[in-house]
Amino acid sequence: MNVSVIDNPxxxxxxxxxxxxxxxxxxxxxxxxxxxxxxxxxVFYLSWFITTREMEACIIAGGQVANEIFNNIIKNIxxxxxxxxxxxxxxNGTMRSGYGMPSAHSQFMGFFFVYTSLRxxxxxxxxxxxxxxxxxxxxxxxxxxxxxxxxxxxxxTLEQVLVGFSIGLVSGSSYFFIVGILREIGILExxxxxxxxxxxxxxDSCNLAPITLKEEYxxxxxxxEPIANKSKSDVKDKTKMNKNQ
Length: 245
What we know:
- Its main location: endoplasmic reticulum.
- Residues 57-176 form the Phosphatidic acid phosphatase type 2/haloperoxidase domain.
- InterPro entries: Dolichyldiphosphatase_PAP2, PAP2/HPO, PAP2/HPO_sf.
- Its EC number is 3.6.1.43.
- Pathway: Protein modification; protein glycosylation.
- The chain is an all-alpha fold.
- It has 2 domains: 15-210, no CATH class; 212-245.
- It is built from 10 helices and no strands.
- It has helices at 26-35, 37-52, 55-78, 104-123, 129-152, 158-184, 187-192, 195-199, 205-208, 213-244.
- Helix 1 (26-35) packs across helix 5, helix 3 packs antiparallel against helix 4 and helix 4 (104-123) packs antiparallel against helix 5 (129-152).
- The longest helix has 32 residues, at 213-244.
- The protein is globular and about 70 Å long.
- 23% of the residues are buried.
- The mean pLDDT is 80.
């Protein structure tokens, strides 16, 4: 039996992409887009893995998912409501907690900011100091804008955002160093030897010797140059034969 949308009480919006904002306020409109940034980050992780098969993409994505679960657990322990503007029924009856402390978006961005910043500072050896600082400042700016959007759109109080971001910083930095230890003792290398990882051509070159876009382009030129030279040589030979005939 078909049930219409109006008659189905279980139909709810997908909250990860459902953002309420004031249509009269340009800042509110821009904030709605920044609130969607965590979704974009997760899509980036997936795209990164599909195109490069780098293990690091799975590691960061796994950490972010664990961080999200941790946030939901904390919310259900503290049970602090969101700002009153969303009422007491916000997200009730869904898989996600309707509570506001701590902010999930802010905790996500705190994790993202500190993990990527530590990679800029400690892992990416080929970057000079200016590029390192530019990367860290960019990550910090994005994190700030997401946190700002959650307060401006009244999804969270300032306190909920600050606590969420702080927890994200702690969990992100702890996760970074745990991953570093697992690398040092060879656990991640052992994982890469599993059949599923070999079947997917997974690797950890991003950690050991990341290839820059410039290096990749130079490798491409080195690969196509012999082909181009051979084609030119074949054309010259054909031209010479035609003249001799």
